[in-house]
């Protein structure tokens, strides 16, 4: 019996090692790397959003779990990008993003204060800007017809989380004019991009179906986000922006698949 258990454990360990090796051996196309860097844009905003929700005492359990998963996903994706991208300038930017991520991880362990909250906002902006640089740099290397659509749809994921970030950070004490302006710009940018995707002629019927789902939801909830100064709807904002993010993530990956 002991020998059988030992053999089973050996097989499980070997299988796990083989799975890890296969994952690390996967070759990524430039458009897949661009989509992954685009996902990092979203995570830079979602990580900060969850930090504020936790410290505001709203949706704490869900936000805590999501924050942990986001940090793990962000770090894993950074490793994939670093391993597969050979361009020195892009790799240098990835190193900068890594440093910002390390700083964020350090601050979230400290007691909440307005100073730390302001640092979190600044770091999320730096991480966003760095990952946008990576997306743009990879986009120049991608010859695929739908690279712009992957970029636009992927950016919608980020904007959904950016909206939630500024909504809750304002309620958590960062009550400055910039938060209101950034919220307004994010809502306008999302609306503009959504309209572009809605009328894109290369959409498949499946993509059109998914975009219409986003459009229906967006037309209901965007006014809630613009009421940032009034507040009072943090859970609705959290859940609706997460729903939009998931839908846009599916659409983004569908655009990637068009090139395969």
Structural notes for this entry:
The model is unreliable at 8-14 and 16-24 (pLDDT under 50). With 260 residues, this protein is an all-alpha fold. The chain has one domain (27-257). It has helices at residues 2-25, 30-56, 60-84, 88-107, 114-141, 147-171, 177-198, 205-226, 234-257. It is built from 9 helices and no strands. Helix 2 runs parallel beside helix 6 and helix 2 (30-56) runs antiparallel to helix 9. Helices cover 83% and strands 0% of the residues.
Which stretches of 5+ consecutive residues score pLDDT under 50?
A: 8-14, 16-24
Summed up, the domain count is: 1
The count of β-strands is: 0
Shape: globular
Portion in strands: under 5%
Features:
mainly alpha; globular; 9 helices; 260 residues
Task: Lay out the secondary structure.
Layout: H1 2-25, H2 30-56, H3 60-84, H4 88-107, H5 114-141, H6 147-171, H7 177-198, H8 205-226, H9 234-257
Helix pairs in contact: 2-3, 2-5, 2-6, 2-9, 3-4, 4-5, 5-6, 6-7, 6-9, 7-8, 8-9
């Amino acid at each position: 019996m002991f020998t059988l258990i030992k053999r089973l454990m050996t097989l499980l360990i070997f299988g796990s090692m083989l799975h890890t090796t296969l994952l690390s051996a996967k070759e990524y196309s430039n458009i897949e790397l661009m989509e992954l860097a685009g996902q990092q844009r979203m995570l830079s905003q979602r990580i900060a959003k969850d930090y504020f929700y936790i410290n505001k005492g709203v949706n704490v359990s869900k936000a805590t779990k999501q924050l942990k998963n986001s940090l793990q996903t962000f770090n894993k994706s950074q490793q994939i990008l670093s391993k597969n991208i050979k361009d020195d300038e892009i790799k240098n930017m990835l190193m900068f993003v890594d440093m910002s991520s390390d700083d964020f991880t350090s601050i979230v362990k400290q007691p909440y204060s307005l100073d730390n909250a302001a640092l979190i906002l600044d770091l999320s902006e730096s991480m966003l800007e760095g990952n946008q640089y990576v997306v743009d740099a990879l986009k120049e290397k991608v010859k695929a017809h739908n690279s712009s659509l992957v970029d636009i749809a992927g950016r919608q994921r980020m904007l959904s989380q950016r909206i939630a970030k500024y909504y809750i950070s304002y309620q958590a004490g960062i009550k400055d004019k910039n938060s209101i302006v950034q919220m307004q710009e994010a809502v306008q940018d999302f609306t503009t991009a959504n309209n572009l995707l809605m009328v894109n002629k290369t959409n498949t019927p499946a993509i059109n179906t998914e975009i219409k789902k986003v459009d229906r939801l967006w037309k209901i909830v965007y006014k809630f986000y613009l009421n940032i100064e009034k507040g009072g709807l943090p859970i609705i904002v959290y859940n609706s922006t997460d729903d939009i993010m998931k839908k846009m993530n599916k659409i983004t990956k569908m655009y990637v698949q068009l090139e395969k």
